[in-house]
Specification:
- The protein has helices at 24-28, 34-59, 69-78, 84-105, 128-140, 168-186; strands spanning 13-16, 112-115, 122-127, 145-153, 156-163, 193-199.
- With 202 residues, the protein is an alpha+beta fold.
- It folds into 2 domains: 34-105, no CATH class; 111-199, Alpha-Beta Plaits.
- The strands form 2 sheets. The chain has a 3-stranded antiparallel sheet with strand order 1-3-2. Strands 4-5-6 form a 3-stranded mixed sheet.
- α5 (128-140) crosses α6.
- The two termini are 39 Å apart.
- This is DUF6286 domain-containing protein.
Length: 202
């Protein structure tokens, strides 16, 4: 890969993966939800620890009242299910559960982009910044481009070029063709939409 035009020096990541045609490449580079999982695990650990402390201390005859369970139990026993406060707490817990399910089900944006290869059992991962640098380098090779920049936003490539030419429309067509050719050569597993901006002489 390092011999390709415009590719950065950083080596891509190679991941053996069968079933590429069924979307295995995208699943292989799906980012993990480490932070939400850690927060949920710490919350459950804290609740479990408090429960264990209360149960053990009560069994030993030295109850530790870190949490006012008695007040909560009295409030729960004297409050109707259709009370506004009960409904508010239940709604908040339901919303929290739905948010956690959504976080687990919807993948975030990964730092690696899966690229197609000639081997159906091989997935190549390229960092998003490296892909942006490759597109920028390809745009800079077009005649008439004074300077080019590129950034990746999700599955959108934002490419901007500056030129001293007056005919920015024709240059834009050449740059778009060159960048799309580079995307076709790299062959991302997911379609990358291209947004091009051409800035002429001021």
């Amino acid at each position: 890969m390092s011999e390709g035009r415009g590719l950065p020096e950083r080596a891509p990541r190679f991941v053996p993966m069968r079933g590429f045609a069924e979307g295995g490449a995208r699943r292989a580079f799906r980012p993990s939800r480490g932070l939400p999982a850690a927060v949920a695990a710490l919350a459950l650990l804290g609740i479990g620890g408090l429960t264990a402390v209360h149960v053990v201390s009560a069994l030993l005859g030295l109850p530790v009242k870190l949490v006012p369970y008695d007040q909560w139990a009295r409030w729960a026993s004297t409050t109707a299910w259709d009370d506004g406060r009960v409904l508010a707490v239940a709604s908040a817990l339901t919303l929290l559960g739905l948010v956690l399910i959504l976080i687990a089900a919807v993948p975030g944006r990964g730092r690696m982009v899966a690229l197609r290869t000639g081997d159906p059992d091989l997935v190549v991962g390229l960092p998003r910044r490296a892909l942006a640098r490759a597109l920028r380098a390809r745009a800079n090779e077009v005649d008439g481009v004074r300077d080019a920049g590129a950034r990746m936003y999700g599955w959108h490539a934002d490419v901007s070029v500056r030129t001293d030419l007056r005919d920015t429309a024709a240059l834009g067509q050449r740059v778009r063709a060159a960048v799309e050719d580079e995307l076709a050569r790299l062959a991302p597993a997911h379609h990358v939409a291209l947004h091009l901006r051409v800035h002429g002489p001021s």
